[in-house]
Amino acid sequence: MAAGPLAAQEAPAEQDKKDEKATELARIEVTGSNIKRTDVETASPVQIISRQDIENMGARTLLQVLDNLPAARPAQVDSKSLFTGSDGASQANLRGLGAQGTLVLLNGRRLSYYGAPAGFQTQFVNIDSIPAAAIERMEVLTDGASAVYGTDAVAGVINVITKREYKGLEVNLVTDKSSRFDSYGEHQASITGGFGDLDEDRYNVYASVNLYRRDPIPLSEMYDKKPAQYYINNPNYINNLRIGTGSAPGVFNPGYYYAIDPVTKVRRDEAAPGCNNVLAVATGTRCIWQTWLNNEIEGGAKSERVTAYVNGHFLIGENTEAFAEATYTDIDLTANGGTPRAFGTTTGNPQSWFSRNTGTTVNQFLTPWLGPDNEYNHASPELKAINGGVVGLSYLLQDVGGNHFGQRNTDKSYRVLAGLKGSLGDWNWETAFASAGTHSVTYQTTNVNIDGFIKAFGPFTIDPGTGRVIISDHPAYKFGEISEANAALIREAFPTFDIQSWTRLHTLDGKIEGPLFNLPAGEVRAAFGFNATRETFYTPGNEDAANGKITQQGGSWFDGKRNTYALFAEAVAPITEKLELDMAVRLDKYPNFSANVAPKIGIKYQALPQLLLRGTYSEGFRAPSLAESGTGGVYAQIGGYRDETRCAETNAIATLLRQSQRQTDVDLGNSLYNSDCSRNVARMTRPNPDLKPEKAKISTLGFVWEPAKWLSVSADWWFIYRRNEIVAPDYSNPEEIIEMTRFPITETDQANLAALAAMCADPASGVTCPGTLPSYSTGNVASVIGQYKNRGRTLVDGFDIDARSRFDLGDYGNLNIGVAATIARRNMYNFDDGSGWYYGNFVGYYGNPRLRATLNADWSYGEVTTSFFVNYVGKTKWAWDKYDALDNNAETCTGGYVAVAPSDCDGVPAWWTANLGLNWQPDDHWHVGFTLKNLFNRKPFFDPNDWMTYSGYASNLGRSYSFSVGYKF
C-alpha cells in the first residue's frame, strides 16, 4: 500500500499532455473518499484484501474473512443465531462497537438492513447476502467516515467491491470437511460468465451465481465433544441424556405420575404401569426416555444460500457510461429441534411472556394436572390419596416424531441499481438510483399454542378439593398410543408459526468531482454531492403471538418509515509538495431531529521519500433506527438473567444436598446448583421517540515507512469517543427496570426444601446441617419492563500495525510475509453522563484482549503457491470488569461463577490456529487448491461465559480439510 505514494514522489515534474491524460485515467476512487486519486494511500488508513488474500487465508465466506482481520471483533454468526430475533444472519463488527457502528457497502453504496433486527431491536446488514463469487477485493476503512457516508460509519467501513468487467466462463467448486465431526461439511459452487469488451465492444455484461451449503451437526456428534471442564461442572449432563437407560426414540413410554403432599411439601414420583425403564430418584421412581440426539440447534444448523449477481457497463458516446447491477440472495437455514416435547404438569415456575395486544400484563401458562376420574390416571391408590386423586403427569408426546420441532429461517434480499457517469471537461460526474430490500421469515415449532393445547387436552376445569387446573377426563389426545390422530392434535398444540419482517431502502444519489484551482504545489480537487433515501421497516407479528396465545414467544412489532436527505462536500489540497490536506463535511437531515453536520479533516505528509505521515479527525453519528424510536415494542425473553437473591438461596440448598452420602440427594443437589443463577425472564422494551442521535469523535495518527523496496511498515493510533449511546435497558441494573414481577414460591421450591429437611433428619446422609436450614425468601423474577434511552459513553483506542515484506528468491520463486496486529489501549464505558469511567478500563478483561494478530507467509514457486496463515487472540481475565473480578478471579478459579479448568485459573488462555494451503495452477485454465485448517488440531478451552461452552472465535471442528478446483473456459 505504501508503494503508491512513494512511487508518485519519484515521478518527474514535467509531463507532456499524453502523460497527463494517462495520469488522469489512472485516478481511482478509494473507500472513504469521493475524490479520485492517483494513489491508494490517503490520510485515512485503508486495508485492502484481495481475492488472492482471501484464498490464501482459507476463508470461504465474508464472515470468515472478517474473523481473520485483527481490527474486527467477533459478531453474530448465522449458525449460532437461533432464537436471537435475527436468526440466520451474520454481522460485521469493527472495533467492538457493534454491527450498528460498522457500515457495510457493496461497490460503495448501501444495502438494506436485514429484515429481523438482532435481539428484535438492533438493525444491521446481513453480510451473508453479499455475492461472494463476484468479489474482486475488500477495502476496510478503519477510520470514521460519517462525513462521507453518513450514519453508522463510526467504527469504520467495509466496502466489498466486485469485478468491474469479466469475459469468458469460470466454474469453481469448494468443499470443507471436519476431522472431528463426520456430519459436518461446507460446500460451495459458483459459475461466472460474461461477454463484451469495454475497450473494443463498448460494453461488458457478466453474471455470477454462487451456491453454498453448510451441513448441520446433530447433538449425537456434539454431546461428548464439549471441553472437558464442562463435564466436571455438569457431572449429570451425559447421564441426563439417558443414553442406553431410557426408552429408545419411537418406542412407547408410559411416563410417570407424581404428587406433592400439601402438609409436608414432599414430592412423590411413581413410574406408570408397564414401564420398562424405571429409574430410582430421591422422590421415588420415574419412567425415563432417551434424549433424541438429532437436535441440531446447539451443534449447528443447516444453511443453504443462493446468490445471483449481474453487472453491466455500457459506453455511451465519448464521455458517458451507463452501469447497472442486480443482486439477489435466497437464504434457507433450518435446525431440527430434536426430542419431542413432553406433557409435564407444572409444579415450578409457569411459562411467562409479554405480547403485543396484552400490554403490560404478563401472560402465564401452566400444564394442567390429571383429575381423579381421568381415564388415563393409573397411579397407585397410595399416590392418588396424597391430593385427593389428582396427580401430575410426565409423558413423552412423540406421535409427530423427532423432526417436527425446530426452527427454520428464510431471507430473500435484493438490490437493483442503475446509473450514469461521465465527464464534463475536467470534471467527473455520477448519479444512480438503487432499490434494496429484504424479507425475513422465522418459522418456529417450539412453543405451545394455548388454543391448540386446550383442543388436545381440554376443556380444563378446577378441581374443587385442591384448586388445581386439571385436563378433561376424556381428552381428545389418547395417552398410551402413538397414532396419526394424536400427531394431528400435537401439531395444533405445538404449531409452526411465522414471524415476518420487511425492510426497504430506496436511494437516489449524485456527485461531481474534479479540479477547483491550482496551488503552487499542485491541483486542488473537490467533490460535491447529494443523497436522498426512503426507508421502511415493517414487522407485523404473528396474530396468535400478538394475542398472547403462543407461550414464551418473543417478537417485535414495528411499522416505521422515513425520508432522509444529505448534502456533502470534500476537497483535497496540496499545501506544499509534501503536505496534502483532506477536508470533508456532510449534512444529514432525519425527521424529528435537527440537521447533523459531520466534518472530517485529514493530513498526509511525505516527511522523507521512505516515510509518509498521516492523521485524521472526524465526527460521526448514528441516527436512532426505526426499531428504537418508532412505534411498537420488543416482547421477548432475557436469557441468562441473574437474580442474586434466588441464586444464593438455591445454591445454599444445593451445596448441602451435594454433601450427602445418599446418591439421590447428590443428584438433586447437582440439578439445583446454579439453576436459579441464569434464567429466562419475560421482558418488554419500549421504543423511545425522544431519542437523540449518537455522536462520536474519531481520530487517527500514523505513518507508512518503506525503508527498503522489499519492506513496508504502517502503524496507526486510532481513537473513538462515542456519547449519547442508544441502548436497551441494562436489566441487571435495578435502576433501569421500570416494572418487575416475581413468581410466588412454587411447589417445586417447597419440595426441594422438604428433601433438604429429610436429608438432614437422616443420619445416614452423613451431613452435619446448620440449626437453621437454608430456605427461600422470594420466588424467581417473572418479568421486567424497560425503555430504550440515550445513556452513557464509550472510549476506545489502540494501535494498528501492519508489516509486509516481499522477497525475490530468484530461481526459487517469490516469498511474501505479512504481520498485522491490533493492540487495544483503552476500552472504557460509563452508563450515565457523569464524570469518570465507572467500570474502568475493560482492556484485558473478558471479551477485550489487548492483542489480536495475524501472520501470513505465501511462497510462490513455479505453478505452486504455498500459504501459511496464523490467527492469534490474546489472553484476558475471566471477569467482565473490575467489579466482576471480586467474584471471578484466579483465587476462586471461576468465570461466570462457574469453575474453570485448573490450568486456566489465571484467565482466558491465548488462542491461535494455523492454516496451511497449497494452490496449484498448471495453466491458464485449471486451478486446484488444498488447505489444512487448524493444522495442529487444537481443541477449544472451556468458556463458562459463552452459551456454546467455548469461545466463538475458538472453533470446535478440530483439523479441517478444504479442497477447491476451478476451471476457466
Automatic annotation (TrEMBL):
Keyword line: Cell outer membrane, Membrane, Receptor, Signal, TonB box, Transmembrane, Transmembrane beta strand, Transport
Domain TonB-dependent receptor-like beta-barrel residues, every copy: 388-935
A GO term from the CC aspect: cell outer membrane
Region entry Disordered, spans: 1-22
Transmembrane segments: none
Signal peptide: none
Keyword Signal: yes
Biased composition (Low complexity): 1-12
Residue ranges of every copy of the TonB-dependent receptor plug domain listed in the record: 41-157
Membrane topology according to the record: Multi-pass membrane protein
Top-level division of the source organism's lineage: Bacteria
Keyword Plastid: no
Subcellular location: Cell outer membrane
Gene3D superfamilies from the UniProt entry: TonB-dependent receptor, beta-barrel domain, TonB-dependent receptor, plug domain
Annotated InterPro entries: Beta-barrel_TonB, Beta-barrel_TonB_sf, Plug_dom, Plug_dom_sf, TonB-dep_rcpt-like, TonB_rcpt_CS
Motif (TonB C-terminal box): 952-969
Family classification: Belongs to the TonB-dependent receptor family.
Protein name per the record: TonB-dependent receptor
Organism: Pseudoxanthomonas helianthi
